[in-house]
Amino acid sequence: MLLKLLIFPGFLFLFLCALFFDWVDRRMLARFQGRVGPPWYQPVADLIKLLAKEDILPTGVNPLTAAVLPMVSLAAVLTAGLYIPFGAFSTASFEGDLIVVLFLLSIPALAYFLAGWISTGVYSVLGGSRALLQYFSYEVPFLMALAGPAILAGSWSITHIVDYQSQTIWIALMQPLGFVLAIIGLIGKLKRDPLDIPKAKSEVVAGSLTEFSGRKLALWHLTMNMQTVVGIFLLVNLFMGQSSVFGPIPAFLSFGLKSVGILLLLSTASALYARLRIDQLATLGWRVLAPLALVQILVATWIGG
Amino acid sequence: MSKITVPIGPQHPLLKEPLAFSLTLEGEHVIESAMRLGYVHRGIERLSQERTYVQNVHLFERVCGICSHIHTTTYCQGVEALLGLEVPPRGLYLRALLCELERIHSHLLWLGVQARNIGFDTIFMYAWRDREIVLDIMEDLSGGRVSHAVNIIGGVRIDLTTEHRDVILRQLDTLEPQIETLLDVVENERSFQARTRNIGVLSLEQIRRYCVVGPVARASGLDMDLRRDAPTPPYDRLKFRVPVRYEGDAWARTMVRMLETVESVHLCRQILTTLPDGPTSVRAKRRVPPGEVVSRAEAPRGEVIYYIRSDGSDKPARVKVRTPTLTNLITLPDQLQNISMADVSVVLSGVDLCIACADR
User: Fold this and answer.
1) Which of residues 109-148 of B touch A (CB under 8 A)?
2) Minimum distance, in Å, between the CA of residue A263 and any CA atom of chain B
3) Which of the 8 DSSP states describes residue A231?
4) Domain that holds residue B112
């Protein structure tokens, strides 16, 4: 059990995946933009460099809160990772774990907001309030989109939803609308281009993390990368679960390929669009995404029921 | 909601040159703005009175880091008028060639900065990659990518062979479709439009009141371009269109600049194919007869004016430079009223500020 928790498919595996996905993402984005991109060890080098840097805290900031926030969000993401099966391997599973995972995955967003709020810098405060606004815009359509597969499979357990798909086809093919909404929601959750509004460089410098440095910043970056991995794994499980499409390819390999496929979608979206404004995102979230997600849920209830 | 004051600059990721803004925000809404200039004042105008006319050519090249050639062109034009010099046509054509190349380079650079500010990094990378072609052409011509030191009083110091001309024409052929791709994105990409349409709108009346020049004025419907309205040779013999749009917003400014870039490529081709034979420069005397002159030219950002007064010695008695950025800066407080914090970057980069030019 301890081995499962710490090595595979637990912390070490997620950590390596985070670094690998970060590199794949940067490399693909660079190729889209006509650049070469970094070598494979760049994410490791960045992490080590940041860990070794001086940790500066501005006056007026509670040192305990500033230290705890990145740790809490990293812990939340790692715990969420435990309940998400990787191919045929899973650490833990119970009926209702999808809800726990979704709850755990929303903790970093709140921690990110708090990180801006406790800071004394104006850019951090602006970035923090933007992060909260963004949270309200993407989270509802995201949750509703993820409820689709659960309703269809008649279970709130990720493992059950995966099993359901091995009897039928991918839910992404049954609910293409829900899949697209979940991808958009995930982009918002990960604060990636084009929804990197809370950390828009030309507007709020680095948002909540402007005043962070050294080890704490490294932990924040690691959290973001881990969140990317966990989010993608979650989507693969819910929408492109175990199925016979890949034939003789071993389950963990096909799972990895599907994850990189979703990562490719995310990188393409970063390369293709300009950043939205926060009011445009709110309009998009509540006027377009949320009603569409509602339609998807109604359809799923109709089919599933 | 409580008000907060956000400093933008002198150091901020959105600014490429030092300029300071103090924005008062209510939530995400800008209600007040105060501007501070002068961080890169180098006293160039005063310094020019200590140097000879010949040395000043190199001094005025340093006014701007992007449109360096147009500054020396305007300065040389003025001094040549004072001297009564007749510059050979080949010299004038080569000068104009560099001017147009510089316009392409400046507009592509600007497009990259604008795209970067709205989080569209792909366009930033593409624009700057395409800009490299122009920089290569300029480096082959003069030896410098940005500071060319091509102009001398009485003409230009460079010349080009027929083979070299063909090489440049081929490079322009690769450049043109790439610029058209960028133009297509600007014109049709919806997320680009969502960030630039109806942002920083200036009416024709405001343009007239503030004496705004260049692409910013042309984007608000003021049909004005010195190359056509007061042509210096060889522009009187070249055919080109002056793109004008009427929306007056950041998107119209982008469109005007991109259409101008396409026109400049055409102009470069015309100049290269109709390049007259003969010498590229004539000898100029060191001492300039007393008198005063106003020299004007269309820089990438708009009309640049040099006023030169001579007292008969080999040093100018006074040189006054008025750069386009200086007039366009004045519109910023108007544009920054009642916009979202997120649009500040679009507005600031929309006018294509060159702070080094404005401060001198």
Assistant:
1) 115-122, 125-126, 129
2) 18
3) H
4) 40-335+343-359
Distance CA A258, CA B119 (A): 28
Q: From B263, B276, B196, select the one nearest B227 (Cα to Cα).
A: B263
Inside any domain, residue B202: yes
| Domain assignment present for B5 | no
User: Among partner residues B12, B191, B345, which is closest to A273 by beta-carbon distance?
Assistant: B191
CB contact under 8 A, B117 and A202: yes
Neighbours of A98 (CB within 10 A): 25
Cβ distance of A33 and B6 shorter than 8 Å: no
What was the ipTM of the complex prediction? 0.83
Nearest by CB to residue A194, choosing from B5, B191, B342, is: B191
pLDDT digits (tens, 9 = 90+) for B319-351: 999 888 888 888 888 888 888 888 888 888 888
Of B97, B116, B86, B276, residue with least CA distance to B171:
B97
Residue B292's domain is classified under what CATH number? Answer: 1.10.645.10
Q: What is the DSSP string of B102-120?
A: HHHHHHHHHHHHHHHHTT-
pLDDT, tens digit, for every residue of B242-263? 899 888 888 999 999 999 999 9
A126 contact residues in B (CB cutoff 8 A): 4, 6, 25, 28, 341
Task: Report how far apart, in Å, the C-alpha atoms of B88 and of each of B69, B71, B92, B154 are.
Answer: 18, 20, 7, 8
Does any domain span residue B12?
A: no
Picking from A29, A274, A277, the nearest residue to B192 by CB comes out as A274
Residue B135 lies in a domain: yes
d(CA B234, CA B227): 9
Number of domains forming the structure of chain B: 1
Cβ distance B297 to B303 under 8 Å?
A: yes
CB contact under 8 A, A201 and B14: yes
Report chain A residues whose CB lies below 8 A from the CB of B192. 274
Q: Mind listing the pLDDT tens digit for each residue in B100-135? A: 999 999 999 999 999 988 888 899 999 999 999 999
Q: B191: which chain A residues are within 8 Å (Cβ-Cβ)?
A: 194, 272-276
- The DSSP line for B149-213 is --EETTEES----HHHHHHHHHHHHHHHHHHHHHHHHHHH-HHHHHHHTTSS---HHHHHHTT--
Task: Measure the CA–CA gap between B149 and A74, rounded to whole angstroms.
Answer: 56
Size of interface A-B (CB pairs under 8 A): 84
Closest by Cβ to B13, choosing from A125, A193, A205: A205
